[in-house]
Design a protein that fits this description.
By secondary structure, the chain is of the alpha/beta class. The chain has 11 helices and 15 strands. The longest helix is centred in the last third of the chain and has 16 residues. The structure holds NADP nicotinamide-adenine-dinucleotide phosphate (NAP).
Length: 324
């Protein structure tokens, strides 16, 4: 088997593609022949040693994979050899073969190609938790998405629309925002070129029920000012590199809440609730309400190139690594 390995923390160029040994299967684990791996913004931070999860080198990055089960531990009952699955992990997905806990492994929805399934769990799982579990969004509510042009952002646009919300997608490039419109966003705002609150005024949108924030910084502070009575602000990420100090007085005045979401950890602590979320997502997918697509596919050995592409913000949505 082959692995992409970090031997010392650094940028995408430090990744090495090496031959490695197959792992033994623990009793509660499954062994998967990997078909493809999802690429996430968190991988860039992990290989720099700047993510919440800080494995010591040498390690492989990678939060999600899809593939076929080729072995099962003796206590595994919910999966069998030959099943097509997708799986999540804290790191270690950039490999041609993985051994992962059975409880963090999910059946690939029927009709979903494995290459799509590789990039599905993290972005759709996070978006669903943010909207449904954290924000408890209701049909007809207004949802503003910061970072709508990224992987999590586009999944959030799709799910929010599928749940009957009015969606305002915000991002930093007009061409990327076109993808949000094609996924159903009712309005788009380029916050790099325009002032968010002025644009909301022009659209005659006075207040927002739910903000899902992947970006942080000034954009987050501006959107907190636009929250409605009982509004919810969900903290998902800080892609701007700036962690906002959310003003407590604004929350108090609107009886509003700010809620943090650490989906990767949640998925480990509460695997059964995540499993239920995936069944709901599968139902939306089967009803053609979600149409996940990858922006670009790289070979596993070219993982550095994929992460560099992500860092240069060339992606609109999901990148995946295909295993030969
Ligand atoms: N809390 C959780 O459980 C969880 C789970 C998954 C992801 N995340 C976090 O969510 C964030 C987005 O993840 P992703 O997978 O969607 O990433 P992605 O596909 O790389 O998208 C990044 C998004 O951030 C925007 N962006 C990038 N650099 C920026 C900058 N300097 N200033 C403003 N906007 C910037 C990009 O938009 P434009 O290029 O259009 O500006 C794009 O919308 C990351 O911070 C990630 O770590 C958190």
């Amino acid at each position: 088997m082959y692995s992409v390995v970090v031997k010392k923390y650094g940028g995408p160029d430090i990744l090495e593609y090496v031959r490695s040994d197959s792992q033994n299967i623990d009793d509660k684990c499954v062994k998967i022949k990997v078909s493809a791996c999802g690429v996430n913004f968190a991988d860039v931070l992990t290989i720099k040693g700047r993510y919440q999860e800080r494995p010591r080198p040498p390690f492989s990055p990678g939060l999600e994979i899809s593939g076929k089960i080729i072995g099962i531990g003796k206590n595994v009952t919910e999966h069998k050899v030959g099943d097509l699955v997708m799986s999540i992990m804290k790191y270690g997905g950039y490999k041609s073969e993985v051994v992962v806990p059975s409880e963090n492994t999910y059946k690939v929805p029927s009709n979903m190609p494995l290459e799509i399934a590789a990039g599905f769990p993290v972005i759709y799982g996070t978006a669903y938790s943010a909207l449904v579990t954290s924000a408890k969004i209701k049909k007809g509510e207004t949802c503003l998405i910061l970072g709508a042009t990224g992987g999590v952002g586009i999944a959030t646009v799709e799910i929010a629309k599928a749940l009957g919300s009015k969606v305002i997608a915000c991002g930093g490039s007009d061409s990327k925002l076109k993808s949000c419109t094609s996924k159903g966003a009712d309005y788009v705002i380029n916050y790099k070129e325009k002032i968010l609150r002025n644009e909301l005024n022009k659209l005659n949108i006075k207040e927002i029920d739910v903000v899902i924030d992947m970006i942080g910084g000034q954009y987050a502070l501006d959107s907190v000012k636009s929250l409605k009575w009982n509004g919810r602000f969900v903290v998902v990420g800080f892609a701007s590199g700036n962690i906002p100090n959310i003003p407590a007085n604004r929350l108090l005045l609107k009886n509003a809440s700010a809620i943090g979401l650490y989906w990767g950890e949640l998925a480990y602590r509460e695997p059964n609730s995540i499993k239920k979320d995936f069944l709901k997502l599968e139902d939306l997918y089967n009803r053609n309400l979600l149409k996940p697509n990858n922006h670009k596919t790289f070979k596993l050995e070219n993982a550095s190139e994929a992460l560099q592409y992500l860092l240069e913000r060339k992606n609109i949505g999901k990148l995946v690594l295909k295993v030969n």
